[in-house]
Amino acid sequence: MNASDTNTLLKLVNISKQYPGVQALDKVSLDVRKGEIHALVGENGAGKSTLVNIIGGNVKADSGSITFNGRIVDINNPKQAAEIGIALVHQELSLFPNLTIANNLYLSILDNQGAFFVPDKLLESQARQVLCRMGLEHLTPSKKIAHLQPGEKQLVEIAASIVKDAKLIVLDEPTSSLTGREIETLFRIIRELKGQGISIIYVSHRLDEIFELCDRVTVLRDGKHIITTPTKSLNTGKLVELILGRKLGEMYTTREVKPKKEVILQVKNLWKEPKLRGIHFHLHKGEILGIAGLLGSGRSELVRAIFGLEKIDQGEIYLNGQSVKIKNPAQAIRLGIGYITEDRHKEGLVIEKSVKDNITLANLKKFATSFGWMMATKEYQAAMRQKEKLNIVTPSILKKVKYLSGGNQQKVVLGKWLETSPKVFFLDEPTRGIDVGAKAEFFKIIQDLARDGAGIVFISSELQEIVSVCHRVLVLRDGRFIEEFTNDNLDAAKILVKMTGEYNDGKQQSPTLERKGNRKTN
Q1: CATH placement of domain 254-336+422-515
Q2: How many CB atoms lie under 10 A from the CB of residue 329?
Q3: CA-to-CA distance for 166 and 511, rounded, in angstroms?
Q4: Is 319 helix (H, G, I), strand (E, B) or coil?
Q5: How far apart are CA 93 and CA 178, in angstroms?
Q6: Using N-to-C axis directions, what is the helix angle for 120-133 and 150-163, rounded to 10°?
């Protein structure tokens, strides 16, 4: 495409970037049209983040050229990117939580203009106009960011891009922490921005979103440009093949493993107000038990309570038929319970520590002498064992985990727990933010764990994962299990109906579940 083409907003030609031992980008070319929603997809480590950071001025390309709005530009930092009309909205938002929406929207502009004092009422009035333009009249400009929901924060960040008069907005995994309703709002706003002539680069691992939203899609693999094509020319299977460079085959194969009869975990009448009310369920050895529910249904609170991260009001927990009182995570680990949290960065990893340090973190006593000294050789052997077993891609186990791709970070979290030899494994959104190739590897590992007799509780917002991976699914709504789906009747649409409560069949709980718990009174 000719750089003078009036329909082209951004054109990258032969962009390359090399880090020590890694060719992150190898002569990648890309063009984005005015008023286009352009998907950028690829496995973790394919070069997506490097490319968008070059566009946004966070990273400098080694070679290649960038043309924006008809002229060649040299983007050396984010400020220069913003000045020409490029805005990046990362997964980790850059808002100031203790400032108001209005302050956040106009902070960078006022700073650039050298303004020392602008009346709050004036800022709030201008902010209200921008929010109304985006259909966000329900947001109060004087409200502090800290008091907003995750989806609202995401929308405010996009609004800040509009205030800066951005012509191109790059959205990096924008729906990773949003509810279904928030995603609908985000999609509406993206389409409205497109209608106003603003271009969007949309980076996501959720392929269904790509097909619903995007006009064209560019695939990167191993730092190379594979294809740019209209989204309507592809289907999910073809796109997956382009991303992986091979046929994926059957991605979900865990139900080949048959659960055993023995019950490994049983929970009776568990209460934790206001999220959990009279929870009953059991888990068999070798079983993958899915828990489906909307955000706020109590999914995460349930496993956190069992793991000892949150104190329960009342209830009984049995492991292998024996009653246990789990007061903290250390006790849960000693009892053979592992837990992958939904937020690997904050709770699953110490990102400034090495792969080795993270893998040994959950079971330090295993690698310490009786005097408390760490046995370096034993630590190294354990880290290497998990690196090879899980195919963790890193040049060294001494490398800090913050430099690994999302999929490999999640493998480090998994490796950490495998070193504790768990008999019960809680997996809370374990595939969030990882690509289809990493997901396939992850599901294979789950299959192996189940085959070895571990009981697995699997929580996911992706219903296709739930129905394809699990032997049995319990639907959680408003702190209660309201329905059970078994291997014979797993159906994503029916589960969704139960999750959302679109109709009420008069039953509070399926008769196939254990009896509904009654709260003890004093």
Answers
A1: 3.40.50.300
A2: 15
A3: 55
A4: strand
A5: 13
A6: 100
CA atoms within 13 A on the CB side of 127: 27
Look up residue 359 and give its two tokens.
């893998």
> For the residues of 486-513, what is the DSSP string, one character each?
ETTS--HHHHHHHHHTSS--S-SS-TTS
H-assigned helices in 22-100: 48-55, 78-84
CA distances from 135 to 75, 93, 138, 296, 449 (A): 32, 21, 8, 25, 47
Residue 316's pLDDT band (cuts 50, 70, 90): very high
Dump pLDDT digits (tens) for 15-36: 999 987 678 899 999 999 999 9
Q: What is the pLDDT of residues 176-230, one digit of tens each?
A: 767 777 788 889 889 989 999 999 999 987 888 899 999 999 999 989 999 999 9
Q: Determine whether domain 8-244 maps to CATH 3.40.50.300.
A: yes
**Cβ proximity of 308 and 326 under 8 Å:** yes
Q: 502: buried, middle or exposed (CB in 10 Å: 19+, 13-18, 0-12)?
A: exposed
What stretches of 325-413 adopt beta strand conformation (E)? Answer: 337-340
Q: In whole angstroms, what is the distance from residue 442 CA to residue 354 CA?
A: 21
Going across the sheet that includes 22-33, the strands are 22-33, 8-19, 63-68, 71-73
Consecutive H or E run containing 407: helix 406-418
Work out the average pLDDT over 429-439.
78
Q: Where, residue-wise, is CATH 3.40.50.300 in the chain? A: 8-244, 254-336+422-515
How many CA atoms lie less than 13 Å away from 210 in the CB half-sphere? 26
Beta bridge partners of 411: none
- Classified as helix, coil or strand, 177 is coil
Distance, in Å, from the CA atom of 137 to the CA atom of 193, rounded to the nearest integer, reads 16
